[in-house]
Amino acid sequence: MSDNQVMERLLKFANGALLASVLAVLVTVVLAYPMASSLPMPVQIGAHIATLIFATTLKLSYVTRLVSLRSLGRPVH
Could you report the per-residue pLDDT of 39-64, keeping only the tens digit for each? Predict the structure, then answer.
């Protein structure tokens, strides 16, 4: 497998992970803040922790996307 094929696969993975992590952050923020009054305390705590974890995943996915784009010689915005 060539380097370009590896980077294309990495880019596809990073794009998917980026989408999934954005959706997960949105869900956990909604659970942690607007819906907090209707959720038990352990769920609220879990939502806050999950927000931090998914925000980190979002950042890592974005950096992975930038690395793969640069390796492929594509514009990095």
Answer: 999 999 999 999 999 999 999 999 99
